[in-house]
Specification:
The chain is an alpha/beta fold and about 250 residues long. It has helices at about 45-50, 75-80, 95-105, 110-115, 120-135, 150-160, 180-190, 205-210, 230-235, 235-240; strands at about 5-15, 20-30, 35, 60-65, 65-70, 80-85, 165-170, 195-200, 215-220, 220-225. The structure holds adenosine-5'-diphosphate and magnesium ion. GO terms for molecular function: ATP binding; ATP hydrolysis activity.
C-alpha cells in the first residue's frame, strides 16, 4: 500500500524570533528517494530536526505515516520508524563491522553480550545480508577503527538499516569521501531506496546528479522549488541563491 510517508504543513520554527523554518510545506510518497539542497543556513538541518522531533514546530504540523508527531518524543518517533544518519559516523571503533551490526540489529543486546554470546542463525544471516548490502563482507572481522571514512559511513548506514526504519534521513553522506567512495555511497542509497523512503541532504552536485529523482531546494526556511535535477539546476532562482554561491563555500 502506497501513500504519503511524510506530510509537513505550514511549519515554522522560530529561535528567539528568527525563523529557521518559515511556513514550510513538504510531502513525500512512501518509497521515494528525495534529495534536499540549499545554501548554508537554509534550514536543512533544522528541517531534519523537525522530522525527528528534536525540534518542535512553533507553528504547523508534521505527520509521519499519517500520524501527527507533535506530542511524541524523539525516541518514540524513532521507534515509529524514523532513522537518522548524522554527518560524523557513530560506530564503535573497537568493535568489528560484524559486531557493530549485531549490536544494532538487536536492541536488547549490549556490547558485553554481543562479544560473549554467539548470535542465532537468523541473526547471523541478517548481519551477513547487511554486510553484503554495505559492501563490507571482506572487512567484517577487522576493528572499525581501521575502516576508511567512507567505509565507516556505510557501516553506520548499515546499522540504521538494521533497525528497519521506514524513513531514513541522511545528512551530507559524502562530505570528505573520495570520488570512488562517493559513487559507491550513491549506489548504496539507490539500492536501499528500493525498500525504504529516504531523504538525503547534500551539497555535492555531482552526487546529487547521480542519485536524484526529485530535488527540493530550501532557501530561508522555505521550499524555493522542486523538480528533477535538470529542472532545478536550470531554475534561475536556484542559480541565484545556491549554485551561484558554491565557490564561496
Ligand atoms: P543548514 O543546515 O541549511 O545550513 P540550519 O538548519 O542549520 O541550516 O540553520 C538554519 C538557520 O537557523 C541558521 O541561520 C542557523 O544559524 C539558525 N539556527 C539553527 N539552529 C538554531 C538554534 N538552536 N538557535 C538559534 N538559531 C539556530
Ligand atoms: Mg546543516
Amino acid at each position: 500500500m502506497k501513500g504519503k510517508i511524510l506530510e509537513i504543513e505550514n511549519v515554522t520554527v522560530s529561535f528567539d524570533g528568527f525563523k529557521a523554518i518559515n511556513n514550510l510545506n513538504f510531502d513525500m510518497e512512501q518509497g521515494e528517494l528525495r534529495v534536499i539542497i540549499g545554501p548554508n543556513g537554509a534550514g536543512k538541518t533544522t528541517f531534519l530536526d523537525v522530522i525527528t522531533g528534536k525540534v518542535k514546530p512553533t507553528q504547523g504540523q508534521v505527520r509521519f505515516k499519517g500520524r501527527n508527531t507533535r506530542s511524541l518524543s524523539e525516541h518514540k518517533i524513532a521507534r515509529m520508524g524514523v532513522g537518522r544518519k548524522f554527518q560524523t559516523p557513530r560506530v564503535y571503533l573497537n568493535l568489528t563491522p560484524r559486531e557493530n551490526l549485531e549490536l544494532a540489529s538487536n536492541p536488547n543486546k549490549n556490547v558485553f553480550s554481543t562479544l560473549f554470546q554467539p548470535p542465532s542463525v537468523v541473526e547471523k544471516q541478517r548481519v551477513l545480508d547487511l554486510l553484503k548490502t554495505i559492501g563490507l563482507v571482506h572487512k567484517a572481522e577487522m576493528k572499525a577503527e581501521f575502516l576508511s571514512h567512507g567505509e565507516k559511513q556505510w557501516l553506520e548506514i548499515g546499522m540504521l538499516i538494521a533497525q528497519s526504519p521506514d524513513l531514513l534521513l541522511v545528512d551530507e553522506p559524502v562530505a570528505g569521501l573520495t570520488d570512488e567512495e562517493t559513487e559507491k555511497t550513491g549506489e548504496l542509497l539507490m539500492s536501499l531506496a528500493e525498500s525504504h523512503s529516504i531523504i538525503v541532504i547534500e551539497h555535492d552536485m555531482e552526487f546529487v546528479r547521480q542519485i536524484a529523482r526529485k530535488v527540493t531546494v530550501l532557501h530561508q526556511g522555505s521550499v524555493l522549488c522542486e523538480g528533477d535535477f535538470e529542472e532545478v539546476q536550470n531554475d534561475p532562482r536556484v542559480i541565484e541563491v545556491y549554485l551561484g554561491q558554491q565557490d564561496e563555500e
